[in-house]
């Protein structure tokens, strides 16, 4: 299909129901399918762990918006990551991960997969020579998150893809922060895209989910085999909600970006703020790369404050319209203290985040209301 992003998000995998004409794929709340004689499957459906029509619609739509050939929907972002790692790696293999990855991704590597013999090294991915130096003969994956959670670090997907491929490794990109509307990793050379669809794709803080999209059919097939064999699939209700969110991703993202830019301006001018982390700022070390590979710079903003951890925590506590809570990417604005909340599992590790850091997921409320709340929260 040559359609534009918005058309694909609304229509790919979502033909009107052939029987009723329903324009939205129904929620197929069903576990099994009547066979017309043993093995006589209608439309290939056999059992809903293997495939379910509502999930198929989401999977096809995700593949289309990421420009891949195979999409797979999981029960959570971490379930998607786990399936990917076990499909691609075996004990003794090695993965390069960002030295500022999402805390839960780090925990999956450090506390779960390391015990099964999958080794990892956290590396600053914006330093290509450091990445090259860390790659070994056992390296199967260079795992990229860009922008990173919560420090908004940026790395060059095209350059890392070339490096990974030269060494026989796959390039995986966690595209959760940017969303496919702002960044297309497969077109830049990545092999697999990972999502926590809980975030911008779902977009309404009402569903947890994950997705993988592969560029290569064989790799897609291997991932699909593991999705079914391991079983952490997205249920039909969750797939339906996620698909509903995906339809409006483009318009939501533009407003997230508009509002984030205004929030950044406010923070830059505030005496209590010591630094603002946002790839849209010309002084951000990854700004040039971000401008090259992203359509806009997203709705996530982090900042550091004078007064250290105690003040950062107080700002989070004082916020009202910015709801204090984990997660991100929903229509409502959220504020959190990564050190004590989303990234607490990285405490004491090389991925520990600074205590004076506050993270904002800038929502799509009236921007003046957001600015007023931040002003009172900053005190
Ligand atoms: O929460 P889950 O759907 O399992 O997705 C995990 C995940 C993966 N990758 C990134 C970049 C993420 O941000 C997340 C989840 N993050 C949060 C819950 C958070 O508040 O940062």
Can you describe what's shown?
This protein has 379 residues and is α/β, with parallel strands linked by helices. The protein folds into two domains: 5-247, Type I PLP-dependent aspartate aminotransferase-like (Major domain) (Aspartate Aminotransferase, domain 2), CATH 3.40.640.10; 250-378, Aspartate Aminotransferase, domain 1, CATH 3.90.1150.10. Helix content is 37%, strand content 15%. The chain is built from 13 helices and twelve strands. The chain has helices at 5-11, 53-66, 77-88, 103-113, 128-134, 157-166, 179-182, 217-230, 236-247, 249-268, 287-293, 308-318, 367-378, and strands spanning 70-74, 94-98, 119-123, 139-145, 170-174, 192-196, 210-214, 273-277, 300-305, 323-324, 334-336, 357-361. The strands form two sheets. Strands 1-7-6-5-4-2-3 form a seven-stranded mixed sheet, sandwiched between helices. A five-stranded mixed sheet has the order 8-9-12-11-10. Helix 2 (53-66) runs parallel beside helix 9. The longest helix has 20 residues, at 249-268. The radius of gyration is 21 Å and the shape is globular. The model has no long low-confidence stretch (mean pLDDT 97). Bound molecules: ligand P1T. Residues 76-78, 102, 104-105, 145, 149, 174, 176-177, 196, 198, 208, 210, 326-328, 342 line the site of ligand P1T. It catalyses: O-succinyl-L-homoserine + L-cysteine = L,L-cystathionine + succinate + H(+). GO terms for molecular function: cystathionine gamma-lyase activity; cystathionine gamma-synthase activity; pyridoxal phosphate binding. InterPro entries: Cys/Met-Metab_PyrdxlP-dep_enz (IPR000277), Cys_met_metab_PP (IPR054542), PyrdxlP-dep_Trfase (IPR015424), PyrdxlP-dep_Trfase_major (IPR015421), PyrdxlP-dep_Trfase_small (IPR015422). Pfam families: Cys_Met_Meta_PP. Keywords: Pyridoxal phosphate.
């Amino acid at each position: 299909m040559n359609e534009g992003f918005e058309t694909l998000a609304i229509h790919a995998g979502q033909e009107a129901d052939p029987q009723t004409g329903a324009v939205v794929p129904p929620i197929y709340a069903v576990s099994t399918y009547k066979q017309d004689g043993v093995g006589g499957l209608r439309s290939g459906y056999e059992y809903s762990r293997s495939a379910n029509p509502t999930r198929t619609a989401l999977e096809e739509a995700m593949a289309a918006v990421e420009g891949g050939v195979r999409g797979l929907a999981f029960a959570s972002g971490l379930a998607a990551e786990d399936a990917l790692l076990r499909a691609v790696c075996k004990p003794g293999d090695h993965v390069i991960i960002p030295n500022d990855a999402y805390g839960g991704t780090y925990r999956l590597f450090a506390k779960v997969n390391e015990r099964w013999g999958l080794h990892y090294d956290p590396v600053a991915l914006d330093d290509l020579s450091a990445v090259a130096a860390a790659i070994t003969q056992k390296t199967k994956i260079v795992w990229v998150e860009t922008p990173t959670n919560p420090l908004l670090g940026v790395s060059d997907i095209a350059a890392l893809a070339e490096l990974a491929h030269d060494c026989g490794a796959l390039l995986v990109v966690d595209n959760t922060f940017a969303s496919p509307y702002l960044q297309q990793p497969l077109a830049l050379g990545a092999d697999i895209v990972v999502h926590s669809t809980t975030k911008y794709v779902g977009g309404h803080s009402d569903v947890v989910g994950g997705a993988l999209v592969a560029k290569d059919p064989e790799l897609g097939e291997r991932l699909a085999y593991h999705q079914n064999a391991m079983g952490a699939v997205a249920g039909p209700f969750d797939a339906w909600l996620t698909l509903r969110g995906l339809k409006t991703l483009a318009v939501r993202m533009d407003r997230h970006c508009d509002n984030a830019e205004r929030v950044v301006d406010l923070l830059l001018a505030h005496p209590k703020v010591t630094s603002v982390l946002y790839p849209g700022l010309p002084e951000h070390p990854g700004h040039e790369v971000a401008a090259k590979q992203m359509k806009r710079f997203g709705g996530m903003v982090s900042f550091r404050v004078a007064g250290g951890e105690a003040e950062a925590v107080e700002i989070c506590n004082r916020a009202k319209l910015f709801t204090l809570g984990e997660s991100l990417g929903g229509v409502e604005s959220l504020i959190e203290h990564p050190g004590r909340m989303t990234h607490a599992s990285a405490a004491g590790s090389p991925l520990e985040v600074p205590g004076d850091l506050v993270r904002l997921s800038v929502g799509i409320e009236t921007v003046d209301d957001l600015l007023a709340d931040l002003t009172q929260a900053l005190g």
